[in-house]
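Q: Got a minute? One more chain.
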Amino acid sequence: ETAPTYTGVGGEYAPAVDLYNRVINKLNYQSKAMQLAFVKNTSSNRVSLPKPGVVTFDFIDENTLATPQSPATSAANLTVFDARGEVGISNDLLDDSPIDVAMEFSDFAALGAAKFVDNVWLSGHVGKSIGGLYAGVSAGRKFTVPAGQTIAPSHLQACVGAIDPLVPQNNLAWVVSGA
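A: Always. Here it is, folded:
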């Protein structure tokens, strides 16, 4: 999404682009989904990502041209959804405050947005037909601690024990959600 601009009433209280960028930067820092995902901005509501076909490799001799390839390709079409939050701050608070309330508030806005993004990423969203990551993880690779219980050492032991030792450590990501 592109940064909004404000020219109406109240626009003089905060530089909207700076505030928007601050929230987005904090969101990218706080959200696990935003850290692990392929994140790109778009002004469209649909994105087509190319999926290459099979590409083959082989050795060639010096001064020999490579065999041209024309692998079949397709695209994965992704629907982009808008998500917004709103919190009212009175003009009196903005006028009377000795600090920049809008910029300080960006911390809370980013944390709220990060919780929303991570929850949708992990659990999905029925209303938008978004499947969550949790449903796609195979049995034995996910662990749920029942509501009202605390995470016990046995839970962590079982979780760590389920990691395939052949997976390189730099390819692992721990995702913990309160969802």
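A: Residues 1-14 have pLDDT under 50 and may be disordered.
Q: Perfect, thanks.
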